[in-house]
């Protein structure tokens, strides 16, 4: 496949890459909202039947899965196939079950072997729920996605 140059084609290609990710798409129903070079926004409408813990609040693992998902998408925006090395989350507030959570992330370092990403998780009213720092190991490349592109 040749290197993609059109930002809309890149965005669609990244969405297509993640369509067969059953964990993200079929179980959690994570929505990839925005894709830009070096950043992404994903969202999840929480479902009390699926995402609550025994106390009736959203399980922290749901937040971690959402954070881990956005880091993979964000890494793809710079052409990298990655595995998570570290994922640090500072939990600030929770969300009412049934609300939508959004996570916006950006690459702060893109090296040959690692990528560092920061992200913020927010509730429907834009209140900060968590800040996130992830270090990803580059395990491959999407050769069709350039490391730098406009958009």
UniProtKB/TrEMBL annotation:
Domain of life from the UniProt record: Bacteria
GO terms, molecular function: fatty acyl-CoA hydrolase activity
CDD domains recorded: PaaI_thioesterase
Domain spans labelled Thioesterase: 56-129
InterPro entries named among the record's database cross-references: ACOT13, HotDog_dom_sf, PAAI_dom, Thioestr_dom
Keyword tags: Hydrolase
Pfam families, sorted: 4HBT (PF03061)
Family membership: Belongs to the thioesterase PaaI family.
Xref: PANTHER family: ACYL-COENZYME A THIOESTERASE 13, THIOESTERASE SUPERFAMILY MEMBER-RELATED
Name under which the protein is recorded: Thioesterase domain-containing protein
Organism (species): Dialister hominis
């Amino acid at each position: 496949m040749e290197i993609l140059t059109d930002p809309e084609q890149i965005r669609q290609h990244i969405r297509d890459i993640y369509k067969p990710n059953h964990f993200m798409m079929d179980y959690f129903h994570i929505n990839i909202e925005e894709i830009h070079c070096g950043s992404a926004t994903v969202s999840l409408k929480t479902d009390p039947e699926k995402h609550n813990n025994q106390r009736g609040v959203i399980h922290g693992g749901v937040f971690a899965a959402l954070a881990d998902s956005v880091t993979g998408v964000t890494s793809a925006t710079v052409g990298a196939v990655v595995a998570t090395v570290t994922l640090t989350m500072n939990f600030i507030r929770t969300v009412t079950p049934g609300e939508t959570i959004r996570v916006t992330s950006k690459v702060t370092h893109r090296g040959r072997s690692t990528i560092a990403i920061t992200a913020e998780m927010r509730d429907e009213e834009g209140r900060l729920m968590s800040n996130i720092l992830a270090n990803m190991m580059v395990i491959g490349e999407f050769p069709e996605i350039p490391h730098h592109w406009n958009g």
